[in-house]
């Protein structure tokens, strides 16, 4: 028999008991996870690789009641048939509804018809900056911080040229409708927000015949953009944002609000810039004096409350600027 010197003996006992302790802790944690898990509070794997994940529905009831991970985001040829409710609502928003089925056929012979952003998973950490057009961006020096994100999503005409220091220079996505469209560079996805069928017809025309020059106002007959990066928001997504997030305030959601909710669905971490008023209470764009706040068509006050609730629930960060 080997007699261990006393010191060794103590060492081994200590080692064994600390192993036991670790095992105990390990089991205790498993039991905890198991218990929470069976109540549906914690999913076993984190939904993404970031520190906190937007899609983690375990940490906010308010959020999970509203967030539908299965809503169609972008229109494609297999999901283009609209359910009756969506179709009725969407048609009521427009005065002169064209032939939707025909337009959809045409659109996917021209633009990519594939599924995007289905790569959600425990090893993805996609950070996004949603950049609104508020005057509070002026003097913010947010440019480098904004450009640091994987996706930089801009809205309507908000330019970066000449404002790089405050708004950055990178644009991966720009959400527009015909009346707000501008030329894009070839690294930017044009994301059309179709408030009406004519908007999709305009998109087709802009890349082909260029003969649509008028909606309810004059619109550009064509724009520069990479045809292979064109995307169209799904009308059902617009309706979902209106129902679940704007809770039917206003007639339809604002572009900024739709863009923010879109980001919640394609990103793991969402940082918001250029939303809201300046600290002096002014609601103008950073690039002109146009008022950027409406409470009539859009439920502006309610949208603002929802955005602040998303902040409270740790789903987004809001960078307010200084001015
Ligand atoms: C359409 O709306 C009605 C009433 O809001 C609802 O009961 C019904 O389930 C909806 N149908 C679909 C297909 O969403
Ligand atoms: C269209 O999008 C749906 C999700 O809305 C997806 O399940 C389907 O695979 C997509 N179809 C094509 C052709 O990419
Ligand atoms: C994209 O634009 C840049 C600068 O205008 C140009 O140098 C580059 O060749 C373009 N790339 C493609 C794929 O068109
Ligand atoms: C544009 O041209 C297409 C094809 O030539 C034609 O079908 C369509 O009616 C024209 N639209 C307008 C607004 O002129
Ligand atoms: C938006 O909501 C925040 C938080 O409730 C509030 O402090 C702010 O005054 C609101 N802004 C407007 C314009 O309603």
From TrEMBL:
Residues that, per the record, bind substrate: 94, 133, 156, 216, 252, 256, 276, 285, 298
Pfam families recorded: Glyco_transf_29
In the record, biological process GO terms are: lipid metabolic process; sialylation
Enzyme Commission number? 2.4.3.2, 2.4.3.4
Subcellular compartments: Golgi apparatus, Golgi stack membrane; Secreted
InterPro entries registered for this protein in UniProt: Beta-gal_alpha2-3_sialyltrans (IPR051757), Glyco_trans_29 (IPR001675), GT29-like_sf (IPR038578), Sialyl_trans (IPR012163)
Q: Provide the top EC class.
A: transferase
Describe which pathway this protein belongs to, using the record's wording.
Answer: Glycolipid biosynthesis; Protein modification; protein glycosylation
| Chief place of localization | Golgi
Record GO terms (molecular function): beta-D-galactosyl-(1->3)-N-acetyl-beta-D-galactosaminide alpha-2,3- sialyltransferase; beta-galactoside (CMP) alpha-2,3-sialyltransferase activity
Query: Which reaction(s) does the protein catalyse, per the Swiss-Prot or TrEMBL entry?
Result: a ganglioside GA1 (d18:1(4E)) + CMP-N-acetyl-beta-neuraminate = a ganglioside GM1b (d18:1(4E)) + CMP + H(+); a ganglioside GA1 + CMP-N-acetyl-beta-neuraminate = a ganglioside GM1b + CMP + H(+); a ganglioside GM1 (d18:1(4E)) + CMP-N-acetyl-beta-neuraminate = a ganglioside GD1a (d18:1(4E)) + CMP + H(+); ganglioside GM1 (d18:1(4E)/18:0) + CMP-N-acetyl-beta-neuraminate = ganglioside GD1a (18:1(4E)/18:0) + CMP + H(+)
| Coiled-coil region | none
Which family is annotated?
Belongs to the glycosyltransferase 29 family.
Name it.
CMP-N-acetylneuraminate-beta-galactosamide-alpha-2,3-sialyltransferase 1
Organism in which the protein naturally occurs: Cyprinus carpio carpio
């Amino acid at each position: 028999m080997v007699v261990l010197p006393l010191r060794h003996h103590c060492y081994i006992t200590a080692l064994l008991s600390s192993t036991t302790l670790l095992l105990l802790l390990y089991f205790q944690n498993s039991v905890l996870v198991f218990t929470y898990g069976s109540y549906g509070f914690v999913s076993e794997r984190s939904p993404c690789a970031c520190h906190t994940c937007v899609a983690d529905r375990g940490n906010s009831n308010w959020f999970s009641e509203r967030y539908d991970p299965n809503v169609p985001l972008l229109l494609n040829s297999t999901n283009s048939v609209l359910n009756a409710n969506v179709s009725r609502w969407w048609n009521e928003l427009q005065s002169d509804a064209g032939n939707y089925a025909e337009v959809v056929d045409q659109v996917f012979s021209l633009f990519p018809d594939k599924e995007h952003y289905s790569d959600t998973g425990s090893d993805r950490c996609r950070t996004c900056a949603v950049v609104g057009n508020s005057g509070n961006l002026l003097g913010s020096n947010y440019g480098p911080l904004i450009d640091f994100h994987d996706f930089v999503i801009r809205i309507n005409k908000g330019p970066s040229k000449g404002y790089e220091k405050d708004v950055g220079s990178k644009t991966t996505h720009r959400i527009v409708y015909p009346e707000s469209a501008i030329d894009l560079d070839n690294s930017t996805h044009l994301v059309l927000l179709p408030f009406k069928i004519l908007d999709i017809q305009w998109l087709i025309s802009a890349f082909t015949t260029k003969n649509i020059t008028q909606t309810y106002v004059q619109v550009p007959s064509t724009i520069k953009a990479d045809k292979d990066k064109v995307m169209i928001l799904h009308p059902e997504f617009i309706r979902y944002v209106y129902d679940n997030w704007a809770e039917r305030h206003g007639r339809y959601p604002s572009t900024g609000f739709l863009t923010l909710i879109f980001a919640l669905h394609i990103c793991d971490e969402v940082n918001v810039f250029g939303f809201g008023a300046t600290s002096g209470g002014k609601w103008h764009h950073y690039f002109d004096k146009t008022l950027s706040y409406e409470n009539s068509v859009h439920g502006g006050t309610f949208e603002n409350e929802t955005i602040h609730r998303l902040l409270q629930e740790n789903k987004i960060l809001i960078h307010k600027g200084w001015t």
